[in-house]
Amino acid sequence: MGSIWSNDHGKTTITYYLASEWLVAPLGSFVGSYFRFDSIRGYHMDVATSKVNVAVIGVGRMGGLHARTYQRLSGANLVAVADSDLESRQAIAENLGCDAYATYQELFSAHPDIAAVSVAVPTEYHLKIAGELLQRRVACLVEKPLASTAGQARELQDIAMRHDAILQVGHTERFNPAVQAVAALEVTPRFIQVDRISPMTFRSLDIGVVMDLMIHDLDIVLMLAGTQLERVDATGVAVLGEHEDIANARLVFDGGCVANLTASRLALKTERKLRLFSDQAYVSLDYQARHGVMIRKTGNVEALAQVRQQIADGADLTDLDYSQLVHVEQLAMDEHKGEQDPLTAELASFLTVVARGAQPEVDGEAGCAAIEVAQRVISAVEQHVWEGLDQQRV
Description:
Layout: E1 2-8, E2 11-18, E3 21-26, E4 30-31, E5 35-38, E6 42-45, E7 51-57, H1 61-72, E8 76-82, H2 86-96, E9 99-101, H3 104-110, E10 116-119, H4 126-135, E11 139-143, H5 150-162, E12 167-170, H6 177-185, E13 189-197, H7 209-225, E14 229-237, E15 246-253, E16 258-264, E17 271-278, E18 281-286, E19 291-296, H8 301-312, H9 322-325, E20 329-330, H10 335-338, H11 342-356, H12 364-383
Parallel strand pairs: 7-8, 7-10, 8-9, 10-11, 11-12, 13-16
Antiparallel strand pairs: 1-2, 2-3, 4-7, 5-6, 13-17, 14-15, 15-16, 17-18, 18-19, 19-20
Helix pairs in contact: 1-11, 4-5, 5-12, 7-12
Protein backbone atom coordinates (compact mmCIF):
# COMPACT_ATOMS: atom_id res chain seq x y z
CA MET A 1 0.00 0.00 0.00
CA GLY A 2 1.15 3.53 -0.70
CA SER A 3 -0.13 7.09 -0.67
CA ILE A 4 0.22 10.23 -2.75
CA TRP A 5 -0.70 13.72 -1.57
CA SER A 6 -1.95 16.16 -4.17
CA ASN A 7 -3.69 19.51 -4.47
CA ASP A 8 -6.50 19.93 -6.95
CA HIS A 9 -7.90 23.45 -7.32
CA GLY A 10 -7.26 24.22 -3.70
CA LYS A 11 -8.67 20.94 -2.35
CA THR A 12 -6.07 18.69 -0.79
CA THR A 13 -6.61 14.98 -1.29
CA ILE A 14 -4.86 11.85 -0.17
CA THR A 15 -4.86 8.95 -2.59
CA TYR A 16 -4.31 5.43 -1.25
CA TYR A 17 -3.51 2.53 -3.48
CA LEU A 18 -3.63 -1.13 -2.63
CA ALA A 19 -2.59 -3.55 -5.38
CA SER A 20 -4.51 -2.35 -8.45
CA GLU A 21 -7.24 -0.45 -6.57
CA TRP A 22 -7.03 3.29 -6.05
CA LEU A 23 -9.00 5.13 -3.39
CA VAL A 24 -9.13 8.92 -3.44
CA ALA A 25 -10.11 10.54 -0.17
CA PRO A 26 -10.74 14.31 -0.11
CA LEU A 27 -9.14 15.76 2.99
CA GLY A 28 -12.42 17.58 3.56
CA SER A 29 -14.27 14.29 3.94
CA PHE A 30 -13.40 14.41 7.60
CA VAL A 31 -13.06 17.55 9.64
CA GLY A 32 -9.86 16.81 11.53
CA SER A 33 -6.27 15.89 11.04
CA TYR A 34 -5.74 12.21 11.77
CA PHE A 35 -6.21 9.56 9.06
CA ARG A 36 -5.99 5.80 9.17
CA PHE A 37 -6.36 3.41 6.24
CA ASP A 38 -8.52 0.31 6.35
CA SER A 39 -8.11 -2.14 3.47
CA ILE A 40 -11.75 -3.14 3.74
CA ARG A 41 -13.58 0.14 4.16
CA GLY A 42 -11.05 2.53 2.60
CA TYR A 43 -10.21 5.66 4.57
CA HIS A 44 -11.49 6.77 7.91
CA MET A 45 -10.36 8.92 10.81
CA ASP A 46 -9.67 8.83 14.50
CA VAL A 47 -13.01 9.42 16.21
CA ALA A 48 -11.32 11.26 19.05
CA THR A 49 -9.93 14.03 16.84
CA SER A 50 -12.24 14.29 13.85
CA LYS A 51 -15.83 14.70 12.70
CA VAL A 52 -17.60 12.80 9.95
CA ASN A 53 -19.17 14.87 7.18
CA VAL A 54 -22.79 13.70 7.09
CA ALA A 55 -25.99 14.47 5.19
CA VAL A 56 -29.63 13.47 5.56
CA ILE A 57 -31.72 12.51 2.53
CA GLY A 58 -35.41 12.97 3.25
CA VAL A 59 -36.28 15.34 6.09
CA GLY A 60 -39.83 14.43 6.96
CA ARG A 61 -40.57 13.52 10.55
CA MET A 62 -37.88 10.83 10.90
CA GLY A 63 -35.29 12.47 8.70
CA GLY A 64 -35.76 15.74 10.56
CA LEU A 65 -35.00 13.92 13.81
CA HIS A 66 -31.85 12.49 12.24
CA ALA A 67 -30.69 15.93 11.12
CA ARG A 68 -31.31 17.53 14.53
CA THR A 69 -29.56 14.66 16.29
CA TYR A 70 -26.49 14.85 14.04
CA GLN A 71 -26.31 18.56 14.77
CA ARG A 72 -26.00 17.78 18.49
CA LEU A 73 -23.47 14.95 18.17
CA SER A 74 -19.83 15.91 18.61
CA GLY A 75 -18.70 13.31 16.07
CA ALA A 76 -20.79 14.68 13.21
CA ASN A 77 -20.53 17.65 10.88
CA LEU A 78 -23.99 18.06 9.35
CA VAL A 79 -23.21 19.46 5.90
CA ALA A 80 -26.51 19.32 4.05
CA VAL A 81 -29.98 17.85 3.68
CA ALA A 82 -32.01 16.91 0.62
CA ASP A 83 -35.77 16.76 0.22
CA SER A 84 -38.16 17.33 -2.66
CA ASP A 85 -40.37 19.47 -0.40
CA LEU A 86 -39.05 23.05 -0.45
CA GLU A 87 -40.61 24.09 2.84
CA SER A 88 -39.30 21.05 4.72
CA ARG A 89 -35.72 21.30 3.54
CA GLN A 90 -35.51 25.07 4.01
CA ALA A 91 -36.90 24.87 7.54
CA ILE A 92 -34.29 22.28 8.54
CA ALA A 93 -31.45 24.16 6.82
CA GLU A 94 -32.32 27.49 8.41
CA ASN A 95 -32.76 25.95 11.83
CA LEU A 96 -29.59 23.87 11.78
CA GLY A 97 -27.32 26.05 9.64
CA CYS A 98 -26.66 23.56 6.86
CA ASP A 99 -27.17 23.54 3.08
CA ALA A 100 -30.36 22.26 1.46
CA TYR A 101 -31.02 20.68 -1.94
CA ALA A 102 -34.03 19.31 -3.80
CA THR A 103 -32.31 16.03 -4.75
CA TYR A 104 -29.51 13.87 -3.46
CA GLN A 105 -27.79 14.23 -6.85
CA GLU A 106 -27.59 18.00 -6.37
CA LEU A 107 -26.35 17.50 -2.83
CA PHE A 108 -23.48 15.23 -3.85
CA SER A 109 -22.62 17.42 -6.83
CA ALA A 110 -22.10 20.30 -4.41
CA HIS A 111 -20.56 18.19 -1.61
CA PRO A 112 -18.72 15.16 -3.03
CA ASP A 113 -16.85 14.87 0.27
CA ILE A 114 -19.86 13.55 2.23
CA ALA A 115 -18.72 10.39 4.02
CA ALA A 116 -22.01 9.16 5.49
CA VAL A 117 -25.75 9.68 5.05
CA SER A 118 -29.03 8.84 6.68
CA VAL A 119 -31.59 7.72 4.10
CA ALA A 120 -35.04 8.57 5.45
CA VAL A 121 -37.13 8.74 2.29
CA PRO A 122 -40.25 6.58 1.68
CA THR A 123 -39.34 2.89 1.63
CA GLU A 124 -40.02 2.49 -2.10
CA TYR A 125 -37.03 4.75 -2.88
CA HIS A 126 -34.51 3.05 -0.58
CA LEU A 127 -33.06 0.74 -3.23
CA LYS A 128 -32.49 3.47 -5.82
CA ILE A 129 -30.97 6.07 -3.50
CA ALA A 130 -29.05 3.90 -1.04
CA GLY A 131 -27.96 1.56 -3.83
CA GLU A 132 -26.36 4.39 -5.79
CA LEU A 133 -24.63 5.83 -2.71
CA LEU A 134 -23.32 2.44 -1.59
CA GLN A 135 -21.76 2.01 -5.03
CA ARG A 136 -19.90 5.27 -4.34
CA ARG A 137 -18.84 3.71 -1.01
CA VAL A 138 -20.78 6.29 0.97
CA ALA A 139 -21.75 4.83 4.34
CA CYS A 140 -25.54 4.56 4.58
CA LEU A 141 -27.88 4.34 7.55
CA VAL A 142 -31.17 3.34 5.95
CA GLU A 143 -34.33 3.80 7.98
CA LYS A 144 -36.41 0.69 8.60
CA PRO A 145 -37.63 -1.24 6.79
CA LEU A 146 -34.48 -1.64 4.71
CA ALA A 147 -36.52 -1.98 1.50
CA SER A 148 -40.02 -2.65 0.21
CA THR A 149 -39.37 -6.35 -0.37
CA ALA A 150 -36.95 -9.03 0.77
CA GLY A 151 -35.53 -9.17 -2.75
CA GLN A 152 -34.76 -5.44 -2.77
CA ALA A 153 -33.26 -5.65 0.71
CA ARG A 154 -31.00 -8.49 -0.41
CA GLU A 155 -29.98 -6.45 -3.46
CA LEU A 156 -28.93 -3.55 -1.22
CA GLN A 157 -26.94 -5.89 1.00
CA ASP A 158 -25.24 -7.40 -2.05
CA ILE A 159 -24.31 -3.93 -3.34
CA ALA A 160 -22.81 -3.04 0.03
CA MET A 161 -20.80 -6.27 0.08
CA ARG A 162 -19.54 -5.87 -3.50
CA HIS A 163 -18.36 -2.31 -2.89
CA ASP A 164 -17.09 -2.81 0.67
CA ALA A 165 -19.51 -0.12 1.83
CA ILE A 166 -21.03 0.32 5.28
CA LEU A 167 -24.76 -0.41 5.47
CA GLN A 168 -26.59 0.05 8.75
CA VAL A 169 -30.35 -0.38 9.19
CA GLY A 170 -32.44 1.90 11.40
CA HIS A 171 -33.87 -0.61 13.83
CA THR A 172 -33.68 1.97 16.61
CA GLU A 173 -35.06 -0.29 19.35
CA ARG A 174 -31.79 -2.27 19.29
CA PHE A 175 -30.27 0.80 20.96
CA ASN A 176 -32.90 1.04 23.66
CA PRO A 177 -30.95 0.48 26.91
CA ALA A 178 -33.71 -1.80 28.15
CA VAL A 179 -33.38 -4.06 25.09
CA GLN A 180 -29.60 -4.06 25.39
CA ALA A 181 -29.93 -5.06 29.04
CA VAL A 182 -32.08 -8.07 28.09
CA ALA A 183 -29.67 -9.09 25.32
CA ALA A 184 -26.77 -8.94 27.79
CA LEU A 185 -28.46 -11.53 30.05
CA GLU A 186 -27.71 -14.26 27.50
CA VAL A 187 -30.70 -16.34 28.57
CA THR A 188 -32.24 -18.98 26.31
CA PRO A 189 -35.81 -17.87 25.60
CA ARG A 190 -38.60 -20.45 25.59
CA PHE A 191 -41.52 -18.06 25.10
CA ILE A 192 -41.56 -14.39 24.12
CA GLN A 193 -44.60 -12.14 24.24
CA VAL A 194 -44.41 -8.70 22.58
CA ASP A 195 -47.08 -6.01 22.37
CA ARG A 196 -46.60 -2.78 20.40
CA ILE A 197 -49.74 -0.68 20.09
CA SER A 198 -50.35 3.03 19.50
CA PRO A 199 -52.98 5.44 18.16
CA MET A 200 -53.12 6.13 14.42
CA THR A 201 -50.67 8.87 13.37
CA PHE A 202 -51.63 8.73 9.68
CA ARG A 203 -47.96 8.37 8.74
CA SER A 204 -46.42 5.44 6.82
CA LEU A 205 -49.76 4.49 5.29
CA ASP A 206 -47.91 3.18 2.25
CA ILE A 207 -47.07 0.11 4.33
CA GLY A 208 -49.00 -2.00 6.83
CA VAL A 209 -48.52 -2.27 10.57
CA VAL A 210 -46.21 -5.28 10.16
CA MET A 211 -43.63 -3.28 8.18
CA ASP A 212 -44.37 -0.10 10.13
CA LEU A 213 -44.34 -1.26 13.76
CA MET A 214 -44.02 -5.03 14.18
CA ILE A 215 -40.76 -5.13 12.24
CA HIS A 216 -38.98 -3.56 15.24
CA ASP A 217 -39.99 -6.49 17.39
CA LEU A 218 -39.35 -9.08 14.69
CA ASP A 219 -35.75 -7.85 14.59
CA ILE A 220 -35.43 -8.09 18.38
CA VAL A 221 -37.09 -11.50 18.59
CA LEU A 222 -34.77 -12.86 15.89
CA MET A 223 -31.81 -11.55 17.85
CA LEU A 224 -33.00 -13.04 21.14
CA ALA A 225 -34.13 -16.41 19.74
CA GLY A 226 -30.87 -16.91 17.85
CA THR A 227 -32.11 -20.00 16.01
CA GLN A 228 -33.74 -20.82 12.68
CA LEU A 229 -37.38 -19.79 12.22
CA GLU A 230 -39.50 -22.81 11.34
CA ARG A 231 -43.13 -21.67 11.16
CA VAL A 232 -45.20 -18.49 11.00
CA ASP A 233 -48.93 -18.19 11.73
CA ALA A 234 -50.57 -14.77 11.59
CA THR A 235 -53.82 -12.90 11.32
CA GLY A 236 -54.70 -9.26 10.84
CA VAL A 237 -57.21 -6.77 9.51
CA ALA A 238 -57.14 -3.60 7.42
CA VAL A 239 -59.44 -0.95 8.83
CA LEU A 240 -58.54 2.41 7.31
CA GLY A 241 -56.53 1.62 4.22
CA GLU A 242 -55.35 -1.15 1.93
CA HIS A 243 -52.79 -2.55 4.37
CA GLU A 244 -53.29 -4.29 7.70
CA ASP A 245 -53.65 -1.95 10.69
CA ILE A 246 -53.76 -4.68 13.34
CA ALA A 247 -51.79 -7.93 13.27
CA ASN A 248 -50.86 -10.84 15.47
CA ALA A 249 -48.13 -13.33 14.63
CA ARG A 250 -46.94 -16.57 16.20
CA LEU A 251 -43.37 -17.58 15.36
CA VAL A 252 -42.01 -21.05 16.12
CA PHE A 253 -38.23 -21.48 16.10
CA ASP A 254 -35.97 -24.48 15.78
CA GLY A 255 -35.45 -25.75 19.31
CA GLY A 256 -38.98 -24.94 20.45
CA CYS A 257 -38.92 -21.23 21.26
CA VAL A 258 -42.29 -19.59 20.52
CA ALA A 259 -42.84 -15.85 20.08
CA ASN A 260 -46.24 -14.18 20.04
CA LEU A 261 -46.29 -10.63 18.66
CA THR A 262 -49.15 -8.14 18.48
CA ALA A 263 -49.02 -4.80 16.68
CA SER A 264 -51.73 -2.20 16.26
CA ARG A 265 -51.79 1.40 15.07
CA LEU A 266 -55.45 1.83 16.01
CA ALA A 267 -55.16 1.65 19.81
CA LEU A 268 -56.31 4.33 22.22
CA LYS A 269 -53.00 4.27 24.10
CA THR A 270 -49.33 3.69 23.44
CA GLU A 271 -47.77 0.56 24.87
CA ARG A 272 -44.55 -1.25 23.98
CA LYS A 273 -43.79 -4.25 26.18
CA LEU A 274 -41.84 -7.50 25.98
CA ARG A 275 -42.00 -10.51 28.28
CA LEU A 276 -39.50 -13.33 28.06
CA PHE A 277 -39.74 -16.71 29.74
CA SER A 278 -36.72 -19.00 29.95
CA ASP A 279 -35.35 -21.82 32.08
CA GLN A 280 -33.12 -19.31 33.84
CA ALA A 281 -35.41 -16.33 34.40
CA TYR A 282 -38.54 -14.37 33.65
CA VAL A 283 -38.00 -10.88 32.24
CA SER A 284 -40.57 -8.11 31.83
CA LEU A 285 -39.57 -5.08 29.79
CA ASP A 286 -41.23 -1.74 29.09
CA TYR A 287 -39.64 -0.25 25.96
CA GLN A 288 -41.26 3.12 26.43
CA ALA A 289 -40.28 3.62 30.07
CA ARG A 290 -36.90 1.92 29.47
CA HIS A 291 -37.52 -0.13 32.56
CA GLY A 292 -37.44 -3.83 33.25
CA VAL A 293 -37.60 -6.41 36.02
CA MET A 294 -36.31 -9.95 36.27
CA ILE A 295 -37.07 -12.97 38.43
CA ARG A 296 -34.20 -15.44 38.41
CA LYS A 297 -34.88 -19.12 38.97
CA THR A 298 -31.67 -19.47 40.98
CA GLY A 299 -32.72 -16.67 43.34
CA ASN A 300 -36.05 -18.27 44.19
CA VAL A 301 -35.37 -22.01 44.30
CA GLU A 302 -36.02 -22.45 48.02
CA ALA A 303 -39.23 -20.41 48.09
CA LEU A 304 -40.65 -22.18 45.03
CA ALA A 305 -39.77 -25.60 46.47
CA GLN A 306 -41.67 -24.76 49.67
CA VAL A 307 -44.74 -23.71 47.70
CA ARG A 308 -44.66 -26.88 45.61
CA GLN A 309 -44.54 -28.95 48.77
CA GLN A 310 -47.41 -27.02 50.34
CA ILE A 311 -49.53 -27.52 47.19
CA ALA A 312 -48.71 -31.22 47.20
CA ASP A 313 -49.77 -31.39 50.85
CA GLY A 314 -53.10 -29.77 50.00
CA ALA A 315 -52.46 -26.51 51.87
CA ASP A 316 -54.76 -23.51 51.32
CA LEU A 317 -52.55 -20.80 49.76
CA THR A 318 -55.24 -18.36 48.67
CA ASP A 319 -53.98 -15.74 51.12
CA LEU A 320 -50.39 -16.02 49.92
CA ASP A 321 -49.08 -12.91 48.12
CA TYR A 322 -47.05 -14.26 45.19
CA SER A 323 -45.32 -10.91 44.59
CA GLN A 324 -43.92 -11.11 48.11
CA LEU A 325 -42.89 -14.72 47.66
CA VAL A 326 -40.38 -14.22 44.85
CA HIS A 327 -37.36 -11.95 44.67
CA VAL A 328 -37.77 -9.35 41.91
CA GLU A 329 -34.66 -7.62 40.53
CA GLN A 330 -34.53 -4.34 38.66
CA LEU A 331 -32.94 -4.93 35.28
CA ALA A 332 -29.48 -3.36 35.28
CA MET A 333 -29.00 -0.88 32.45
CA ASP A 334 -26.07 1.10 31.17
CA GLU A 335 -26.51 4.47 32.86
CA HIS A 336 -24.64 6.36 30.15
CA LYS A 337 -26.77 4.88 27.38
CA GLY A 338 -29.86 5.33 29.48
CA GLU A 339 -29.29 9.06 29.56
CA GLN A 340 -29.72 9.39 25.80
CA ASP A 341 -32.58 8.39 23.57
CA PRO A 342 -32.21 5.31 21.33
CA LEU A 343 -31.95 7.43 18.14
CA THR A 344 -29.02 9.38 19.57
CA ALA A 345 -27.34 6.11 20.57
CA GLU A 346 -28.02 4.68 17.11
CA LEU A 347 -26.51 7.64 15.22
CA ALA A 348 -23.54 7.82 17.60
CA SER A 349 -22.90 4.13 16.92
CA PHE A 350 -23.16 4.75 13.16
CA LEU A 351 -20.57 7.55 13.35
CA THR A 352 -18.22 5.29 15.30
CA VAL A 353 -18.67 2.52 12.72
CA VAL A 354 -17.83 4.96 9.91
CA ALA A 355 -14.84 6.34 11.81
CA ARG A 356 -13.38 2.92 12.55
CA GLY A 357 -14.52 1.00 9.49
CA ALA A 358 -16.24 -1.42 11.84
CA GLN A 359 -19.24 -3.73 11.49
CA PRO A 360 -22.59 -2.06 12.30
CA GLU A 361 -24.53 -3.43 15.25
CA VAL A 362 -27.57 -3.71 12.98
CA ASP A 363 -26.12 -4.56 9.57
CA GLY A 364 -27.67 -5.32 6.20
CA GLU A 365 -28.07 -9.00 7.02
CA ALA A 366 -30.17 -8.14 10.08
CA GLY A 367 -32.27 -5.81 7.95
CA CYS A 368 -32.80 -8.53 5.34
CA ALA A 369 -33.75 -11.09 7.98
CA ALA A 370 -36.36 -8.79 9.52
CA ILE A 371 -37.98 -8.09 6.15
CA GLU A 372 -37.96 -11.75 5.15
CA VAL A 373 -39.84 -12.67 8.33
CA ALA A 374 -42.14 -9.65 7.98
CA GLN A 375 -43.10 -10.80 4.50
CA ARG A 376 -43.86 -14.27 5.84
CA VAL A 377 -46.12 -12.66 8.46
CA ILE A 378 -47.89 -10.53 5.83
CA SER A 379 -48.35 -13.57 3.60
CA ALA A 380 -49.88 -15.50 6.51
CA VAL A 381 -52.21 -12.57 7.23
CA GLU A 382 -53.34 -12.52 3.60
CA GLN A 383 -53.91 -16.29 3.56
CA HIS A 384 -55.90 -16.32 6.79
CA VAL A 385 -59.58 -17.03 6.14
CA TRP A 386 -62.17 -15.03 8.04
CA GLU A 387 -65.47 -16.90 8.08
CA GLY A 388 -68.33 -14.70 6.93
CA LEU A 389 -66.09 -11.92 5.56
CA ASP A 390 -65.45 -11.30 1.87
CA GLN A 391 -62.28 -9.30 2.60
CA GLN A 392 -59.96 -8.61 5.50
CA ARG A 393 -61.33 -5.17 6.29
CA VAL A 394 -63.76 -4.35 9.09
